[in-house]
Amino acid sequence: xxxxxxxxxxxxxxxxxxxxxxxxxxxxxxxxxxxxxxxxxxxxxxxxxxxxxxxxxxxxxxxxxxxxxxxxxxxxxxxxxxxxxxxxxxxxxxxxxxxxxxxxxxxxxxxxxxxxxxxxxxxxxxxxxxxxxxxxxxxxxxxxxxxxxxxxxxxxxxxxxxxxxxxxxxxxxxxxxxxxxxxxxxxxxxxxxxxxxxxxxxxxxxxxxxxxxxxxxxxxxxxxxxxxxxxxxxxxxxxxxxxxxxxxxxxxxxxxxxxxxxxxxxxxxxxxxxxxxxxxxxxxxxxxxxxxxxxx
Length: 296
Prior knowledge:
With 296 residues, the protein is mainly α. The chain has helices at residues 2-12, 16-40, 46-67, 79-102, 105-112, 115-126, 133-150, 159-181, 187-208, 215-241, 244-247, 253-266, 272-295.
């Protein structure tokens, strides 16, 4: 108990920027463990995995809505965007989980990190935000980096890589919806609605394709849900302490965590072309990070 108080006291004395960085690192680590637990759950349908991943978040968010006396349905003016966010976010998770099951963990993670670049594109298309030639060039180069990870072979082996990119597209669309919402809804309301709707969306498919689970598989999926919850809330709190332009790049440590966990648990390492792809995508992300920071 005393150690906990000391830890809280130390955290409280840190600058907001350092708090933001630590929380985003926690989010990245939790997300890496979530992906690992999803993979450890074995050959279960992605729908089934998504349901258990989101149902945990739904219960935690429901408690927070109750605790803060918030809304379970959100403002009427925001419901359409929240619905779109839920649909696209759910599709993104389904594709991402399929990629996690069939690719090296760090490969699936890095493909998912294309989502911020898709946000730039979709924000231009749907929110009428400006896009310039540098951003278009960055998106193109990042896509070429993704091809190094996917290594197109034009057969069934290509499907997991395509799923990884589609997962990033779904996440990008979901984040674009969140961008449209701005700060008009409390984070716990948004997380509750998303997690609940996502669970309901996949439930019929999870029931239809259901495969009986062992106790260890169920445990892994519940742990995946717990890690996802920690990741979501840590990320939200991180951006409450510091703006994205100062800390967003630290979210890419998720790939490092995933590579280390993948090596430790599955004995998997990315190949040379994948590593080159990582470097290309990360370099683009780093450039965009400094470019946007300078532009603000």
